[in-house]
Design goal:
about 65% helix; elongated; five-stranded mixed sheet; Beta-Lactamase; four-stranded antiparallel sheet; Helix Hairpins
Length: about 500
């Protein structure tokens, strides 16, 4: 407790006693000593509860002096009456006991608050770990957790690649090169006991580096910005940081975060290998398919083939199957492109009717039947989109509707717009969606058991369509009354006004 705080407490406790005495003397100057004694316990307990031990003792002494002076009136502060001596003992004991109990309660409240804050941090940390999709997100969650514990700027380097990423992201030299070099050295040595302080010559700040855990280097190397500190203060700060990191490491080990990081790294490597394999195989398969499609196109124009119905049918079957496999390969290539490079729409003003007609023309070539019922209002506005991507999304949804519907059923397609968005609604009479399927239908590679039993597929169509629509700031919504009751899929794209075109072009170029 500071001297200033102590003086404030003494003044406040003295004022409490003085105000109470003035009120008592003014209201009932001839009150019995026993009744007055009980009233003086009020300021003593208030001082003990809120101001501390010393102000409470000051209140006790002040109360006895006031009693000696006014009850009975003696015009002297001399404490000679046996009752006043007893009051001094009782007041002092009350002040000490009450202040002790109040301090214990405050300490327990502080401990409870710290535990509550720690529990909240752990809960937030565990939630971030639960939704982390890869090792990078796990490391980011650990970094934020350590920052909340240490209460200083913390940078966590899980790998040497993380160090390069942090350095490239900080164009203003926020992370000193020496810190990067030493972090790389600790990571390379895999020495979990390594620790050091590094001075930043530019800002004059000091960084403390060590592995998060002293038992394993799987959690990475942490760099803490200690700031400008003297050697004595630096030693205390390092001890405090060491204790905080020790507790954090214990938590990470209890949560088995090391295993989660390892599994995330394995998943990331698996995904990379799968994407590379899909890309390679897709290109290798597309070359012979292109040759088959060219050959069947030429064969279909040969008079001998076109006149022979059996031969013409066989050529048509080959061409249809080749086109179907070509579409499947295109889905794989689109999935690889979305996963590795993302989607960069080439935006232009387009009539939504033209996009729908192109998608339906492609659909009709594939299914060779008229199953669609189209509703087009006459006053549809132009939309600022990548027409090829939106056409692909529409085709995927309509093709999906046909794939999981009876052959003689109809597919209803309706375009409509309001002041903020353009929507395309596709409604089929197919197998519908259960509640679980409705939540997962847009996930990558998802195929429900009923869908897998009724038709073949990769589970990529709606995921690709959703990626293409999301790249335009839109969304896909699905609904169904239930299994066997058909499905409604809606594409909703935001309308762009003319004055917003330059900004959209900048986003597209970026």
């Amino acid at each position: 407790m500071s001297v200033r705080h102590a003086l404030v407490g003494l003044i406040c406790s003295s004022l409490l006693v003085a105000v109470l005495t003035a009120v008592l003397v003014a209201v009932v100057p001839q009150m019995d000593l026993g009744a007055v004694t009980v009233i003086y316990l009020v300021p003593i307990m208030i001082s003990a509860t809120w101001l501390g031990t010393v102000p409470a003792l000051a209140s006790a002494v002040g109360a006895v002096l006031c009693l000696a002076y006014f009850y009975p009136p003696s015009d002297s502060l001399y404490v000679a009456n046996r009752d006043h001596v007893i009051n001094l003992v009782v007041f002092t004991a009350t002040a000490l006991l009450t202040s002790y109990l109040a301090s214990v309660l405050r300490e327990q409240a502080a401990i409870s608050a710290r535990r509550e804050a720690e529990t909240a941090r752990l809960y937030a940390f565990s939630r971030k770990l639960a939704i982390a999709r890869d090792a990078r997100e796990i490391y980011r969650a650990i970094e934020e957790h350590l920052s909340s514990i240490v209460r200083r700027r913390v940078i966590l380097f899980g790998t040497a690649h993380d160090i390069r990423e942090h350095a490239s992201a900080c164009s203003d030299g926020e992370i000193p090169p020496r810190v990067q070099e030493e972090a790389c050295a600790i990571l390379a040595s895999r020495n979990s006991l390594a620790r050091m302080t590094v001075a930043d010559a530019g800002r004059g700040a000091i960084w403390f580096l060590r592995c998060v855990s002293t038992t394993t280097s799987d959690f990475g190397v942490v760099a803490v910005d200690v700031g400008k500190s003297s050697p004595a203060v630096l030693g205390d700060l390092v001890k405090e940081i060491e204790a905080a990191l020790y507790d954090a490491a214990q938590t990470l080990e209890q949560l088995d975060v090391g295993r989660a990081i390892h599994e995330a790294q394995v998943r990331a490597e698996t995904d990379m290998l799968r994407e590379a394999l899909i890309g390679s195989v897709s290109h290798d398969l597309r070359t012979p398919l292109s040759a088959i499609l060219c050959a069947t196109t030429v064969l279909s124009t040969v008079p001998a083939v076109s006149k022979d119905e059996r031969t013409r049918t066989l050529v048509q079957i080959i061409q249809d199957e080749a086109e179907r496999h070509n579409e499947d390969i295109q889905d794989l290539l689109d999935a690889t492109r979305i996963s590795t490079r993302g989607v960069r729409p080439q935006l232009e003003w387009t009539d939504p009717t033209d996009i729908l007609n192109s998608a339906l023309e492609r659909f009709n070539r594939r299914h060779r039947c008229e199953r669609t019922i189209v509703e087009l209002p006459p006053d549809l506005p132009l939309i600022y989109v990548d027409s090829s991507l939106i056409e692909q999304a529409l085709f995927q949804i309509v093709d999906n509707a046909a794939k999981y519907s009876p052959p003689d059923s109809k597919i209803q397609i309706r375009l409509h717009s309001d002041s903020e968005s353009m929507s395309a609604t596709i409604r089929d009479e197919g197998i519908g969606l259960t509640e679980t399927e409705g939540r997962q239908i847009l996930d990558r590679f998802f195929r429900g058991e009923r869908a897998a039993a009724s038709s073949s597929g990769s589970g990529l169509g709606l995921w690709i369509a959703n990626a293409f629509v999301s790249a335009h700031g839109g969304r896909i919504e699905t609904s169904s009354p239930g299994a066997g009751c058909g499905t409604t899929v809606s594409i909703r794209l935001p309308l762009t006004h003319q004055e917003a075109v330059p900004q959209l072009e900048e986003v597209a170029d970026a």
